[in-house]
Design a protein that fits this description.
Length: about 750
Amino acid sequence: MDRALCIHGHFYQPPREDPWLGLILPEGSAAPSRHWNERICRESYAPMARARRLDGSGRIVELLNCYEWMSFNAGPTLLAWMARSAPDTYARLLEADRESVKRLGHGNALAQIYHHVIMPLASDLDKELEVAWAVDDFRARFGRDPEGMWLSETAVDTPTLEALAAAGIRFTILAPSQATAVSDDGENWQGVDAGSLDIRRPYKVLLPSGRPMAVFFYHGPLSQAVAFERLLADGEQFFRRLSGAAGEGLLSLATDGETYGHHFTFGEMALAYVLDQARSGRDGLTLTNYATFLETDPPKRFVRIREASAWSCAHGVERWRSDCGCTNGGHPGYNQKWRAPLREALDRLKSRLDAHFFAAGNPLFSDPRRALAAYGKVMAASMAPAAFEAAHFAPKLPEAARGTAWKLLSMQAWGLASFASCAWFFDEISRLEPVNGLTFALRAAELARATGMADPEPEVTDILAKARSNDPEMGSGRDIWENMVRPRRETPKTLVTQALLTLGLEERLPTGDGSAEARWPGVAVTVRLDDPEGGARPGTASLRYHLETATEDFAISFRQAATADPFDGCVTMVAAGGGAEEGVCFRDVGLPVNKRQALADAFARHAEDAFFAAMLAQAATARKLVTELQEAQNTLNLAPLWLHLWPGLLWHEVFALPLPAKREALLRLFLIEAGRNSPVKAALEARLAAETARRAAEPDPDCRNLARLVARTADLDLHPDWWAAQNALWERRPFAGSTAILAGALGFAV
Ligand SMILES: [Zn+2]
């Protein structure tokens, strides 16, 4: 194979889930998106799945799935969120891998270290788990075995490569600076550096185990240029740079996936241009992926890797444990001395969790280590909990012991999540990422206590006390733990409170003798309520955490808010097994700001839907009363009063049958004038776009009518983003007859 090209994208977001709710809570800095996953998905991951290729007049000729023509890895924690919250983009990733297998015989997708931990800093157990869980996650999603695995920050050492090889992984990708010497025969070595290393072929690494492992090295300067030199500003320029650098063998680039579209607006379009040029064979280039190249051009030479090195630290892997000087975050004066105690505290906690897991797990599992390694199958939902119990639990365990066993597994998963590399990456310990890491540690510590371990928090916070924030007001790591981490802890009291608040705000509280469920990805609360007795409603609440079998049950008495303030409600709870009665008024629970924001967001959606539906009904009546345009009339009588009906009037004007022409003329005049300065214009445009996309995705859409609707919207001076409708229509290729009419209306070249 000559002049082969492979562009690799690393797609990753730090784990952001609240470890109790399993939900990403609102992040203010991502507003108006709810959080960063949502925002980056909208700016980058989704556009890359349907990148617009345009003709000379700006009309769309193709929606290109970039993932189908590039190599990529996406972390399990990001994919789990995407599967739930961006299913269309997720489906395109899976489809891209399937299509590349069909075309090349090997898929574009690579696995990724499960929690994006820095592998050279992880224990042997943690290395094994991060790889095993990643493999199981990959198999469950992509339906095949992974051949390559992306190492977090390309952080590598020999034991890490051994862990990959032991799991059947055949190759990984490293930076050219991570090679120290090469050899033709494995005996005579020649020193190399990033400049002298021949990156056009993969190399074999000689592992002590004798297992095979190949390493690809990406093109450093070009990969850097994509990120920092505006290469994505011009697709043609980008292609010429690539073509100029390509030669006999493989040219590969490794880039952060977020570069395309998030860091660089419309970067996905430049990428799509390059991929299209390359797939058409311009300049003799061939698009390939690593596994395909490995098969046609297996490594003949050997390489020695730089032990404990990474692509984003010039000092080995110090960035994730010391004040090495590598940092970003925008505060040049800050120091990162806090990194060492943060690492020490979490290492100490994890080694205690490990000891506890094996001691407490010994009577519960047939083989605790095997059970823990296989837990990834349950997290990936490729193995049912009952099957896992049959395979790995000791026989005839009583229910309470089974509950403990599941908690121990969950404890280990949260302990590992606390090592996600982002906690150390930036410049300050009170940032979101370290606080998230510590919150996962808090959850792990709580599960440890619940399964009989002595409280690890005092020891952890003693170590954290040595970490100093750069912000004097934040104090030490211990202060951050007490002021920012511990307040996030959920208890049955806070969960039942949030369940009752959620059900009340969404008008789903059970009536009569019914029950209702407030469900988050991580926990579900089922509430049953009877008729009121003396102002309060007696009932029960039952909590169940995801991947746990046991429930926590309570008898409750709920006193609903007597005012419009939902926090005016109170509940008393008694655990089903007995115990003290706990009473709490919602306003005293002290939910942290992002949990209150989550309630506010859910209410805003619910209230806006309810408001829109009511207004739509009023507008339907109002529209029938619109009279004829009269001489010299330039707006509706009492126009200011009609303004609040504007969105509904416009909606009907688009979707309902037209009025008689003279009456229509008056309404149109008003709609255009009122829309000019309407503060709800963007929200209405979003609704119109979503409804059009929904209709276009129906099994047998009325495309002629939809085309009329699109034209009508423009006539009323509204310009929705037809992105989702275009995507839905693209699935109906080839365009002919009515689909061609709609395609033309939506901006396709037809
Ligand atoms: Zn460094």
